[in-house]
Amino acid sequence: MPVQGVTDGYGPVVGEASRNYSEVSKIDFMKLLVAQIQNQDPMSPMDNAQFTSQITEMTMLEETQKMNANLEDNIMVGQSINNTAMLALVGKDVTVEGNNLSLTGGQSSQNVIASTGPGTATIEVTDSGGHVVDSFRIPVDAGLNDFNWDGLLEDDVVAPDGKYTLSISVTNGDIDVPFTSLLTGPVESLRYDNGVGVVTVGGSEFYVSEIYKIS
Prior knowledge:
This protein is an alpha+beta fold and 215 residues long. The chain folds into two domains: 26-86; 92-214, Sandwich (Immunoglobulin-like), CATH 2.60.40.4070. It is 24% helix and 37% strand. It has two helices and 13 strands. Strands 1, 4, 7, 10, 11, 12 and 13 form a seven-stranded antiparallel beta sheet that branches. Strands 2, 3, 5, 6, 8 and 9 form a six-stranded antiparallel beta sheet that branches. β2 (100-104) and β3 form a beta hairpin.
């Protein structure tokens, strides 16, 4: 009875590492080229230009694969360095879009109005129950305008600590001025979403790219 070899031409050698057969290696190419030469028509053999062209194409493909592999390695290293650097954001004050405000010991968190032009901002402070507890006006310029609520109710009593919401409008005479309401607070935590940094500020999550300013 004939003894079957370790390989039968249809499977890998026992103990050999698995490979992706959708990729053509240099050895595969050389085997195909040799087979092509062995089985060519003696009356119409492959000319030198065609032979050289195939070898050149294989060399260019191999170099491209090496460049792609190096590029992927560089991207991974850069992303790792960037993610490590973003850890330094935890505990720092950052400015992000939002209209929330927190009051602790009579001291309010800082808020910012990013205005497209000069005008007057009318600000209403609303408690968690939806009641307006205070309102005031401040002048604003084009750009970032920092402000703090004094923490006092309309009867000059110190408001209780907690979370509040700001309702803001900016006008210049009878013209509404476009603006963005921002809040400033410490970064409470940092996580990654598909490699993209996401920070938690004031209980809400923001992408690192949404940070306007780091204090």
